[in-house]
Fold these 2 entries.
Entry 1:
Amino acid sequence: MKLLKSISALFFFLISLSHNAQGRFDKVTIETTKLTDNTYMLVGAGGNIGVSVGADGVLIIDDQFAPLSDKIISALKKLSNQPVKIVVNTHHHGDHTGGNENFGNLGATIMAHDNVKKRLKDKSPAAALPVITFNDKLTVQMNGEAVMVIHVDNAHTDGDALLYFTESNVLHTGDTYFNGRYPYIDLNSGGSVDGYINAVKTGLMLINDETKIIPGHGELSNKTEYETFLKMLETLKANVLAEIKKGKTEDDVAANTDITKTYDALDYGCCFITSEKIRRTFYKSLKKE
Ligand SMILES: [Zn+2]
């Protein structure tokens, strides 16, 4: 009887778990924005998805969470009757790679930086792992254009890639750009303030005034907004370094709203990373130098 009870308790626990996991994504809709004749941006929950369609098949950049794969596939079917041939991961975080197993099982080839594979290896089934990895850069010839995949060192993580569609003039930054928000810099996965700033500078070197930019999070963007984001990063770096020079502690910096006030006023602290969190991140990363 006791065993029966614990089995049924376990059963209900598992049911409620799966309900919660699904429930979180039930109401998510995938919104598609056309960028050029053959490129699109998909927004659902998690990192923004970049898409290339054409005679060679479908390439997607990042794949959000596993429970959204069916919705993503439905959205892609409206753009192309071809299968997803290639998935490129911009980095290892679960809101960008959660669908890997589903797309891998459907026959897609997953590509990512070496460190993405290292970080996914222990906690993911084989189908979710990148099949092609790179340590510096890679070019994918797809749907009539070269797609440059460029690694940037120790930025948001230690495995970030920027992707640039050379004919479409579209840049996907992964999480090295949060449009209009303070970014998450994952110091525990090899991210750093200096690497993050360098990643944005690298991205800016690739583009021009007409480039459409898909940020990791936030709305479709352009060069002017991307430059504003760089200015925010450089301003915060200078302000936090000045405090470190004065001998201030992490808690001093966390409490000092003057450091971020220009960008707090523009609501950069709106979302996942608050202004206090970004001051702490900058302090921790810059203090190490
Ligand atoms: Zn991320």
Note: The first helix runs from residue 2 to 26.
Entry 2:
Amino acid sequence: MTENTNQSLVQIGRSEKFNARLGMGGSFYGLDHASAQGEADILAAMETALDKGITHFDTASGYGNGYSERLIGRFMAADSSRRERIFLASKFASDDISAQAMIKAIDASRDRLQTDMIDLYYIHWPRTGKDLRPLMEGLETARQQGKIQAIGVSNFSVEQMAQLGEVGRIDAHQLGYNLLWRYDEADIIPYCVENNISVVVYSALAHGILAGKYARELDFVKGDQRWSITLFRDSVWPRIYEALEDFKALAEQTGYPLTQLAIQWLLHQRGITSVLVGAKNKAQALANVQALQADIPDSVFNELTALSDQVSQYIPDEGNPFGYHP
Ligand SMILES: NC(=O)c1ccc[n+]([C@@H]2O[C@H](COP(=O)([O-])OP(=O)(O)OC[C@H]3O[C@@H](n4cnc5c(N)ncnc54)[C@H](OP(=O)(O)O)[C@@H]3O)[C@@H](O)[C@H]2O)c1
């Protein structure tokens, strides 16, 4: 049974489908893919999110090497009403940047997702110094064939977007944005606003930092992907940890959990269409849904921005939150 939340409806591209402002992330970061319990928890999170009106589901062919798409495909196939209620987004990245590679990737995603049409399909990452217009041509062909409805890019610069715009229409840009990472406010978000490109945000909780889940001493195992994230660097993390204490104190004063403040702050920023949050179990999904129902005064958003401004000076701009430039 679908419950009403107070979220407003949005549209990405020319798609007829409307989707909610909060999206369910599908990277299942840190999940042991062999764990039956982990999988059951994620299916429960998806069910809860959808039943509470979170209809935007985001995945990628690269998440778990196709695992995430297959799991969401199984989730939708288990109840025939689910596919029509979901605004489905996926992505692809590869070193083969031909139009054929893109069309092949879209077909493989459709197979794994058990659907004829994917609402939004992104180029997941640019390739430094490469001309990706052939990938865009592949996306436009797939759109004409009815295999996808809207086209997105993710982690692109303004120049890279402008180049693709010569051969097709970009409907959405997915980028990292949160209280601890705001570099795209300078040029990319304004460019999207000007060009009527929807902005979908990832890392809303800054890799879980804004959920307050890390101690002062980080203890990720060797090889954990998080070591490569700028915010966890030795030279940056102590400042983040200090700032987090201030964010937590503000959350306590207001009576709202910091996760809700962080999500709502994003939804109040200029040009933001939809915010993705990864939830790995029912409780997290429920907590994130509640963020949409919170009625937070503007003065609190101003205080959040002020705290964010203070810590931002210690965070180096590495182009994206992962400092990853394939
Ligand atoms: N386009 C891209 O390049 C890109 C990059 C990254 C992500 N994404 C997309 O964005 C989605 C969001 O992922 P993200 O990695 O950016 O995640 P995030 O929103 O920054 O953090 C997600 C993590 O926060 C924790 N969490 C979520 N809700 C919580 C709650 N209510 N209370 C406490 N902890 C909570 C969970 O941590 P635990 O795991 O510890 O439970 C969860 O895994 C991904 O699933 C993916 O779809 C896209």
Note: Residues 1-6 have pLDDT under 50 and may be disordered.
